[in-house]
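Mods, move this if it's the wrong board.
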Amino acid sequence: MTEPDPYLWEPGGCLRNKLGARHPVELAFTEYPLRAVRQGEIDRGEVDIPRTYDKAHLQAIHRHLLQDVYDWAGEYRTVGISKAGNDFVPPEYLDKWTAKVSAKVQDKDWSTMSRAEFVQSIAEVYSYQNLTHPFREGNGATGKVFLHHVAEMSPYRLDFDRVEREEWNAASRASYPPDPEQSTEPDASKMYAVFDKLTVERGSVLRADAELATALQLQNSTYAGVDAQEPTGMGERPATHAIDRDVEVEAEYED
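Not the wrong board. C-alpha coordinates:
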Protein backbone atom coordinates (compact mmCIF):
# COMPACT_ATOMS: atom_id res chain seq x y z
CA MET A 1 0.00 0.00 0.00
CA THR A 2 1.33 3.43 -0.98
CA GLU A 3 2.22 5.67 1.94
CA PRO A 4 0.36 9.02 1.97
CA ASP A 5 2.34 12.16 1.22
CA PRO A 6 2.72 13.98 4.57
CA TYR A 7 3.10 17.33 2.79
CA LEU A 8 -0.50 17.29 1.52
CA TRP A 9 -3.75 18.09 3.30
CA GLU A 10 -5.24 15.00 1.68
CA PRO A 11 -4.12 12.52 -1.00
CA GLY A 12 -3.99 14.22 -4.40
CA GLY A 13 -4.71 17.59 -2.80
CA CYS A 14 -3.04 20.83 -1.86
CA LEU A 15 0.22 21.26 0.01
CA ARG A 16 -0.18 21.94 3.73
CA ASN A 17 0.51 25.61 4.35
CA LYS A 18 0.41 28.37 6.97
CA LEU A 19 -2.03 30.41 4.90
CA GLY A 20 -4.91 27.97 5.33
CA ALA A 21 -5.28 27.57 1.56
CA ARG A 22 -6.97 24.30 0.66
CA HIS A 23 -6.84 24.57 -3.13
CA PRO A 24 -3.69 24.89 -5.28
CA VAL A 25 -4.99 27.94 -7.17
CA GLU A 26 -5.67 29.76 -3.93
CA LEU A 27 -2.28 28.74 -2.55
CA ALA A 28 -0.47 29.91 -5.68
CA PHE A 29 -2.11 33.33 -5.61
CA THR A 30 -1.48 33.86 -1.91
CA GLU A 31 2.03 32.37 -1.83
CA TYR A 32 3.58 34.21 -4.74
CA PRO A 33 3.31 37.83 -3.48
CA LEU A 34 4.75 36.82 -0.11
CA ARG A 35 7.64 34.94 -1.71
CA ALA A 36 8.37 37.71 -4.22
CA VAL A 37 8.67 40.27 -1.42
CA ARG A 38 11.06 37.97 0.46
CA GLN A 39 13.10 37.54 -2.71
CA GLY A 40 13.28 41.31 -3.04
CA GLU A 41 14.79 41.43 0.46
CA ILE A 42 17.46 38.95 -0.61
CA ASP A 43 18.15 40.76 -3.88
CA ARG A 44 18.60 44.09 -2.07
CA GLY A 45 21.05 42.57 0.40
CA GLU A 46 18.74 43.02 3.40
CA VAL A 47 19.17 39.39 4.47
CA ASP A 48 22.39 37.82 5.74
CA ILE A 49 22.82 34.63 3.73
CA PRO A 50 26.44 33.38 3.96
CA ARG A 51 27.78 32.44 0.53
CA THR A 52 28.92 28.94 1.46
CA TYR A 53 27.46 27.29 -1.68
CA ASP A 54 26.45 24.18 0.26
CA LYS A 55 23.40 22.69 1.94
CA ALA A 56 23.25 25.45 4.56
CA HIS A 57 23.30 28.06 1.80
CA LEU A 58 20.40 26.46 -0.06
CA GLN A 59 18.42 25.98 3.14
CA ALA A 60 18.91 29.62 4.14
CA ILE A 61 17.57 30.81 0.77
CA HIS A 62 14.57 28.49 0.85
CA ARG A 63 13.80 29.29 4.48
CA HIS A 64 13.73 33.02 3.84
CA LEU A 65 11.73 32.79 0.62
CA LEU A 66 9.00 30.53 2.00
CA GLN A 67 8.98 31.24 5.73
CA ASP A 68 5.51 32.81 5.48
CA VAL A 69 4.01 29.85 3.65
CA TYR A 70 5.33 26.48 4.88
CA ASP A 71 6.31 25.14 8.29
CA TRP A 72 9.01 23.09 6.56
CA ALA A 73 10.66 26.05 4.81
CA GLY A 74 14.39 25.40 4.72
CA GLU A 75 14.06 21.65 5.32
CA TYR A 76 15.06 19.02 2.76
CA ARG A 77 12.18 16.84 1.57
CA THR A 78 11.61 13.37 3.00
CA VAL A 79 9.66 11.98 0.04
CA GLY A 80 10.50 11.12 -3.54
CA ILE A 81 9.23 13.48 -6.26
CA SER A 82 9.21 13.51 -10.05
CA LYS A 83 8.12 15.70 -12.93
CA ALA A 84 7.18 14.93 -16.53
CA GLY A 85 8.15 11.30 -15.96
CA ASN A 86 11.60 12.14 -14.59
CA ASP A 87 12.47 11.22 -11.01
CA PHE A 88 14.55 13.60 -8.96
CA VAL A 89 17.25 12.39 -6.56
CA PRO A 90 15.76 10.14 -3.83
CA PRO A 91 15.65 11.79 -0.40
CA GLU A 92 18.29 9.49 1.08
CA TYR A 93 20.85 10.78 -1.46
CA LEU A 94 20.12 14.51 -1.21
CA ASP A 95 23.13 15.32 0.97
CA LYS A 96 25.44 13.44 -1.40
CA TRP A 97 24.11 15.28 -4.43
CA THR A 98 24.17 18.64 -2.70
CA ALA A 99 27.86 18.01 -2.07
CA LYS A 100 28.26 17.41 -5.80
CA VAL A 101 26.63 20.77 -6.53
CA SER A 102 28.87 22.47 -3.99
CA ALA A 103 31.97 20.91 -5.57
CA LYS A 104 30.91 22.19 -9.01
CA VAL A 105 30.90 25.70 -7.53
CA GLN A 106 33.93 25.65 -5.27
CA ASP A 107 36.33 23.81 -7.57
CA LYS A 108 36.43 26.71 -10.04
CA ASP A 109 37.88 30.22 -10.16
CA TRP A 110 34.81 32.15 -11.29
CA SER A 111 36.55 35.52 -11.19
CA THR A 112 38.80 34.79 -14.18
CA MET A 113 36.35 32.95 -16.43
CA SER A 114 35.77 33.85 -20.04
CA ARG A 115 32.13 34.15 -21.06
CA ALA A 116 32.17 30.70 -22.67
CA GLU A 117 33.68 29.15 -19.54
CA PHE A 118 31.07 30.83 -17.37
CA VAL A 119 28.17 29.61 -19.54
CA GLN A 120 29.37 26.03 -19.38
CA SER A 121 30.18 26.15 -15.67
CA ILE A 122 26.92 27.76 -14.54
CA ALA A 123 24.96 25.34 -16.76
CA GLU A 124 26.70 22.46 -15.01
CA VAL A 125 25.87 23.83 -11.56
CA TYR A 126 22.23 24.27 -12.55
CA SER A 127 21.94 20.80 -14.11
CA TYR A 128 23.14 19.09 -10.93
CA GLN A 129 21.07 21.35 -8.68
CA ASN A 130 17.93 20.80 -10.74
CA LEU A 131 18.34 17.01 -10.72
CA THR A 132 18.77 17.18 -6.92
CA HIS A 133 15.56 19.21 -6.31
CA PRO A 134 16.08 19.05 -2.52
CA PHE A 135 12.82 20.69 -1.41
CA ARG A 136 9.22 19.51 -1.63
CA GLU A 137 8.29 22.78 -3.33
CA GLY A 138 10.08 26.04 -4.18
CA ASN A 139 13.08 24.53 -5.94
CA GLY A 140 12.81 26.85 -8.96
CA ALA A 141 12.84 30.06 -6.93
CA THR A 142 15.57 28.80 -4.60
CA GLY A 143 17.70 27.63 -7.51
CA LYS A 144 17.50 30.99 -9.26
CA VAL A 145 18.69 32.86 -6.18
CA PHE A 146 21.49 30.32 -5.70
CA LEU A 147 22.64 30.79 -9.31
CA HIS A 148 22.64 34.55 -8.84
CA HIS A 149 24.88 34.09 -5.80
CA VAL A 150 27.28 31.91 -7.79
CA ALA A 151 27.34 34.48 -10.60
CA GLU A 152 28.33 37.17 -8.09
CA MET A 153 31.82 35.69 -8.10
CA SER A 154 32.18 36.22 -11.86
CA PRO A 155 32.24 39.13 -14.33
CA TYR A 156 28.72 38.11 -15.40
CA ARG A 157 25.16 38.13 -14.19
CA LEU A 158 22.03 36.19 -15.18
CA ASP A 159 18.98 37.82 -16.81
CA PHE A 160 16.24 35.19 -16.84
CA ASP A 161 13.94 37.47 -18.86
CA ARG A 162 16.04 36.67 -21.93
CA VAL A 163 14.79 33.08 -22.19
CA GLU A 164 11.19 31.96 -22.72
CA ARG A 165 9.72 29.57 -20.19
CA GLU A 166 9.06 26.86 -22.80
CA GLU A 167 12.63 26.96 -24.08
CA TRP A 168 14.02 26.76 -20.56
CA ASN A 169 11.84 23.83 -19.55
CA ALA A 170 12.59 21.91 -22.75
CA ALA A 171 16.35 22.29 -22.24
CA SER A 172 16.01 21.38 -18.57
CA ARG A 173 14.15 18.18 -19.40
CA ALA A 174 16.73 17.33 -22.07
CA SER A 175 19.51 17.62 -19.47
CA TYR A 176 18.12 14.70 -17.44
CA PRO A 177 20.12 11.46 -17.64
CA PRO A 178 18.74 9.66 -20.73
CA ASP A 179 19.23 6.25 -19.13
CA PRO A 180 19.45 6.38 -15.31
CA GLU A 181 20.40 2.70 -15.22
CA GLN A 182 23.57 3.52 -17.18
CA SER A 183 24.38 6.91 -15.63
CA THR A 184 22.73 9.22 -13.13
CA GLU A 185 24.78 12.25 -14.23
CA PRO A 186 22.90 15.08 -16.00
CA ASP A 187 23.95 16.34 -19.44
CA ALA A 188 24.77 20.00 -18.80
CA SER A 189 25.50 20.63 -22.49
CA LYS A 190 21.74 20.65 -23.10
CA MET A 191 21.58 23.86 -21.05
CA TYR A 192 24.42 25.72 -22.79
CA ALA A 193 22.20 27.51 -25.32
CA VAL A 194 19.79 28.94 -22.74
CA PHE A 195 22.54 30.04 -20.39
CA ASP A 196 24.33 31.66 -23.31
CA LYS A 197 21.19 33.74 -23.88
CA LEU A 198 20.73 34.84 -20.29
CA THR A 199 24.39 35.55 -19.46
CA VAL A 200 25.12 39.29 -19.41
CA GLU A 201 28.29 41.20 -18.58
CA ARG A 202 27.98 42.57 -15.08
CA GLY A 203 28.41 46.18 -16.17
CA SER A 204 25.28 46.07 -18.34
CA VAL A 205 22.19 48.02 -17.32
CA LEU A 206 19.91 46.12 -14.94
CA ARG A 207 16.24 45.68 -15.73
CA ALA A 208 13.39 46.53 -13.41
CA ASP A 209 12.38 43.86 -10.91
CA ALA A 210 9.50 42.28 -12.86
CA GLU A 211 8.71 39.70 -10.16
CA LEU A 212 8.37 42.35 -7.46
CA ALA A 213 6.09 44.40 -9.72
CA THR A 214 3.91 41.33 -10.28
CA ALA A 215 3.80 40.69 -6.54
CA LEU A 216 2.61 44.20 -5.82
CA GLN A 217 -0.06 43.87 -8.49
CA LEU A 218 -1.29 40.60 -6.97
CA GLN A 219 -1.36 42.13 -3.50
CA ASN A 220 -3.77 44.77 -4.78
CA SER A 221 -6.10 42.25 -6.43
CA THR A 222 -8.82 40.12 -4.85
CA TYR A 223 -8.83 36.35 -5.13
CA ALA A 224 -12.10 35.50 -6.88
CA GLY A 225 -12.50 31.95 -5.67
CA VAL A 226 -12.02 28.48 -7.11
CA ASP A 227 -14.31 26.26 -9.15
CA ALA A 228 -14.69 23.08 -7.15
CA GLN A 229 -14.38 21.04 -10.35
CA GLU A 230 -10.88 22.31 -11.20
CA PRO A 231 -7.86 19.98 -10.83
CA THR A 232 -6.49 19.78 -7.30
CA GLY A 233 -2.77 19.12 -7.89
CA MET A 234 -0.09 21.41 -6.45
CA GLY A 235 3.67 21.52 -6.35
CA GLU A 236 6.18 18.96 -7.51
CA ARG A 237 4.74 15.55 -8.32
CA PRO A 238 5.34 13.00 -5.52
CA ALA A 239 6.97 9.93 -6.97
CA THR A 240 4.22 7.76 -5.44
CA HIS A 241 1.18 9.88 -6.40
CA ALA A 242 -0.36 11.02 -9.69
CA ILE A 243 -0.74 14.75 -9.02
CA ASP A 244 -0.89 17.35 -11.77
CA ARG A 245 -0.03 21.03 -11.50
CA ASP A 246 -2.29 22.82 -13.97
CA VAL A 247 -1.88 26.27 -12.48
CA GLU A 248 1.00 28.42 -13.70
CA VAL A 249 0.94 31.91 -12.24
CA GLU A 250 4.61 32.29 -11.37
CA ALA A 251 7.07 34.21 -13.52
CA GLU A 252 9.76 31.60 -13.00
CA TYR A 253 11.00 28.39 -14.49
CA GLU A 254 9.63 25.26 -12.86
CA ASP A 255 12.15 22.61 -13.86
